[in-house]
Amino acid sequence: MLKSGFFRESGWTRKAREKTEHAYRLIGRGHLRRAERVLREAVDIDSGYAEAQSKYGWVLAKLGRDLDVAEAHVRFAVELEPKNPRFWEDLSAVYLKKGELRCALVAVLRAEEIYPKKDPGVELVNGTIRDAMGISAEGVREISARARELYDEVGLRSRGRLMAGALKYLFEGFKRGGSRNE
Most CB atoms within 10 A, among 69, 71, 107, 126? Predict the structure, then answer.
């Protein structure tokens, strides 16, 4: 019998976790291609292990490979664990690599919303996006406010939180300069 608050990890999840931990070590040593293969195995072992999904997508993006596939893996991780700021940060990195700067900004703002303490990784991504977009910190706040307004207008908010699945749809409004109702 398990004590309250504890869970039993399945054998498949344990294997996927071990592979993912190995991949982190490979990433730390700069072996991204090997980490990609190990993370692919982890995802194949347990597709519901969000950590493997997110990091696999991040590695694909870092290598510049299959950016749409990378986005799908990280978005799946965000759907599995929407309150994990690392997954939102990975999603912002994928969008940044794809050149979708506004989507990257919304994702990094979501990471900051979940974990409001100054995280160096989030700050770095946020600064990179702001520099690429040529906007100030005030401009970031304006974009964030407009994103929330658009979400409210089109009903794409979920319990007051920005969700990854609607980012592309949301930014169609930015591209047109308004909402879908205009």
Answer: 107
